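Design a sequence for this backbone.
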């Protein structure tokens, strides 16, 4: 059974609602359970009672701090004032406070909350936003945070944000990206070579399809391998863009390919499962060029299938 995702209460000053919505949307992409008044508070619900109940049920209190958090008169926004009252009554292991600064602001009233030293995360300047967001993800979900494994539609902006978030290498979009820190382990199962990445809990085909094929044929090939229990498993699938992007190395390690030499070098570009948003094209990874792009479905690429080793991490 999948472990329940941690519940997070997102608190902010009204003037910061634009950034609050952005953070909420970005965290929701990873399946996190977030209480955000703009989305969670239903019409007719008692505002104070709902907030008190939500905070007590949460594992994390994510508070956005800015120059608006405390007014010139020293007044804390009503929601935060209620939260602080509740949090003072909680044990330290009941709920963890995550202060997040949106600008240069010294949150002195936060540090006094429970007479403990709380380190905050800075979401500024804009160039640091995605690195800071990643810090939040690792705090609230150190075990459940993983690469997305369900196919979705992605715009170019979505892809750009994903690449920055994970600091994936992409020759065009993020040439200074450090890539993903893998822990590859080679294995042979039922005479089939596979690569297990202990860092992502993914099992990959060491090689892949022996020839290039269009996207429809790629989907059929997935079904065929599952019917014959490739390497003893029947849950192989096309990788999401995130999973496939994680394979890109910032330097050429496999001949001219930007992929570790533990993999077969025949598959120079592969299909992913993600479709381009508002388009019939599908995202693909080019190990020869070290980048991603979207391709018409009748173009031919190779296929390298993947499966999740631990469902609890998905």
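Sequence:
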């Amino acid at each position: 059974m999948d472990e329940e995702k941690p519940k997070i209460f997102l608190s902010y000053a009204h003037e910061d609602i634009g950034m609050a919505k952005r953070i909420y949307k970005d965290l929701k992409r990873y399946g996190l359970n977030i209480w955000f008044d703009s989305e969670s508070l239903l019409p007719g619900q008692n505002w104070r009672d709902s907030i008190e109940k939500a905070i007590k049920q949460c594992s994390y209190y994510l508070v956005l701090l800015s120059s608006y958090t405390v007014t010139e008169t020293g007044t804390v926004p009503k929601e935060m004032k209620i939260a602080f009252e509740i949090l003072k009554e909680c044990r330290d292991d009941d709920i963890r406070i995550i202060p997040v600064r949106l600008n240069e602001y010294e949150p002195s009233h936060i540090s006094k909350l429970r007479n403990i030293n709380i380190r905050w995360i800075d979401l500024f300047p804009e160039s640091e936003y995605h690195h800071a967001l990643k810090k939040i993800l690792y705090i609230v979900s150190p075990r459940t945070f993983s690469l997305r494994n369900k196919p979705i539609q992605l715009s170019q902006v979505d892809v750009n944000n994903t690449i920055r978030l994970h600091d994936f290498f992409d020759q065009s979009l993020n040439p200074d990206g450090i890539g993903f820190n893998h822990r590859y382990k080679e294995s042979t199962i039922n005479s089939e070579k596979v690569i297990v990445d202990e860092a992502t809990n993914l099992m990959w085909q060491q090689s892949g399809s022996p020839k290039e094929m269009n996207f429809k044929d790629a989907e059929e090939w997935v079904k065929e391998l599952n019917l014959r229990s490739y390497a003893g498993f029947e849950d192989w699938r096309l990788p999401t863009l995130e999973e496939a992007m994680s394979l890109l190395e910032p330097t050429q390690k496999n001949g001219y390919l930007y992929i570790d030499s533990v993999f077969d070098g025949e598959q120079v570009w592969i299909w992913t499962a993600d479709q381009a948003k508002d388009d019939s094209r599908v995202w693909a990874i080019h190990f020869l060029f070290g980048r991603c792009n979207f391709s018409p479905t009748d173009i031919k690429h190779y296929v390298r299938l993947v499966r999740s080793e631990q469902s609890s991490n998905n």
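The first helix runs from residue 17 to 28.
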